[in-house]
Amino acid sequence: MSEEIERIKCLIIGSGPAGYTAAIYAARANMSPVLYQGTQPGGQLTTTNEVENFPGYPEGVTGPEMMMELQKQAERFETDVRNGWVTKVDFSGDTHKVWVNETKEIHCDTVIISTGASAKYLGLDSEQKYLKLGGGVSACAVCDGFFYKNQEVVIVGAGDSACEEAHYLSKLCTKVTMLVRRDEFRASKIMAARVKNTENIEILYNTETDEVLGDGQVVTGVRVFNNKTNERHEIPATGFFVAIGHKPNTDIFKGFLDLDETGYIINVPGTSKTNIEGVFVSGDAADHVYRQAVTAAGTGCMAALDAERYLAAKDATFDVSTSTYN
Ligand code: NDP
């Protein structure tokens, strides 16, 4: 027997900094938000050790701890935080329909999408092992580069992100070895030129990762192979950075929302609005450029404010005067 359909004023999908910030603002604006956490409660930050660049934490904070605090703050204002994964949506009619865990159907006045993006990894067992241990594998140089100050690191990738991250790392680390799988960069000429002209970046073309090496706890090096000659060699390194792109978690919105060629949701510039009225986007699901916790939180705030204004305009009975923005 199917469950009764639930009606929700503001549904937030995703539990990273964007989702929780949207929840804090929506709850304080009397929108009774319901937030579904998804398959990775806390989002990408739960895979980061130390966060030192989020304002307000002078001593730094671990990613999981910060996400627990954000959840607590959202719940303090009575956000209904639920376990569950949104598996399907239908934004074709006046009512925005959402299904959780394939079965539960919800009808929403507003939807805030904060589903984030996932960094792509190579998928090697050794890479995943040290990623899970927090022992030297990272997909974010801006987040984790500082921990490799004055050390030698390896970075994989040849796009704009890899170039930007390699250059960032070169200012902290003694040496950065960049593994490029073809004989050329994908990055724009100017970005590629910047890494080519940086003294402590060594570029190895036609080179792929065979194995991330370590002592069982932390990374100690990388074994690579040349895909033309099949020669293998080891590079000593304490950090292994993967910058081979991100995949926005937006598959379920295909066919309803305007997405760019990589799948990022296209928002109306300067707002959180999507092409569907009442559906808003925040965080990395629409951002392939900045991808920071603090920018995600900022756009979460924007989405809640846009949703509140949308409801106020649509329904005169929604009392915007009781809401609190500060
Ligand atoms: P891209 O998809 O542009 O590049 C991914 C890179 O990773 C490619 O060089 C690709 O190699 C390589 N790669 C993919 N899979 C593997 C693998 N298994 N092993 C080794 N290498 C692999 O992603 P980016 O994140 O760099 O950029 C995404 C978008 O964001 C782009 O449009 C980019 O221009 C933009 N961007 C702009 C910035 C800026 O302007 N400041 C900064 C960062 C991103 P191959 O080339 O062989 O396919």
Automatic annotation (TrEMBL):
For this UniProt record, the keywords arranged alphabetically read as follows: FAD, Flavoprotein, Oxidoreductase, Redox-active center
Instruction: Report which reactions are catalysed by this protein.
Output: [thioredoxin]-dithiol + NADP(+) = [thioredoxin]-disulfide + NADPH + H(+)
- GO molecular-function term, one example from the UniProt record: thioredoxin-disulfide reductase (NADPH) activity
One Pfam family assigned to this protein is: Pyr_redox_2
Q: What's the EC number here?
A: 1.8.1.9
Position of the signal peptide: none
Protein name in UniProt: Thioredoxin reductase
